């Protein structure tokens, strides 16, 4: 079963619950493998349906979170970005708390019929002072790295650093080896 869970290049996406469980289990090893620190925040990114007003999606998300099982005690809030996407931002002292909060938020949205609106779970880290993100993409059910950097006034991706991160975590997490599936999420509020 574990071989199937971590098989690389699989066309069958993992469930978000399975992928989040892998992140939770690997937390201590992940911190060591990446020599990284957690930021105390994580997020779930949701995109409105075509023609749906962002304000309505945000209301639906907040309603789902308010009535979601297990959300009591999870420190969270919602924010809207400049692309009209809604972010559920969770706060916690440990990766385990962040994973729990993000998982519960995803489950609450799914139970309310909003699961298809979820784009990704976003888990920020810092490595040597540089921000790095592990993105759990709902569509492929796998983690991908994102390493933004600024050169002058331009924001760019550090693609070689992203590849290094993926190599470091591939034995710990279900990652997507196909770099064409990796994408940036600029301006995350975490």
Description:
It is a single chain. It contains five helices and nine strands. β5 and β6 form a beta hairpin. Strands 1, 2, 3, 4, 5, 6 and 7 form a seven-stranded antiparallel beta sheet that branches. A two-stranded antiparallel sheet has the order 8-9. The protein is α+β, with helices and mostly antiparallel strands. The chain has one domain. The longest helix has 19 residues.
Number of domains: 1
| Beta-strand percent range | 25-35%
Distance between the termini: 34 Å
Shape: globular
- Structural class based on helices, strands and sheet pairing: alpha+beta
How large, in whole angstroms, is the Cα Rg? 16 Å
SSE ordering: HHEEHEEHEEEEEH
Number of strands: 9
Poorly predicted ranges: 1-8
Helix content: 25-40%
Number of helices: 5
- Largest sheet, described in full? 7 strands, antiparallel
Mean pLDDT: 88
List the defining traits of the structure above.
single chain, 27% strand, 9 strands, alpha+beta
Layout of helices and strands:
Blueprint: H1 2-5, H2 16-34, E1 37-38, E2 41-46, H3 54-67, E3 75-80, E4 86-91, H4 95-111, E5 118-127, E6 130-137, E7 142-146, E8 148-151, E9 154-157, H5 159-169
Antiparallel strand pairs: 1-5, 2-4, 2-5, 3-4, 5-6, 6-7, 8-9
Give a quick summary of the entry.
This protein has helices at 2-5, 16-34, 54-67, 95-111, 159-169, and strands at 37-38, 41-46, 75-80, 86-91, 118-127, 130-137, 142-146, 148-151, 154-157. With 190 residues, the chain is an alpha+beta fold. The chain has one domain (13-175).
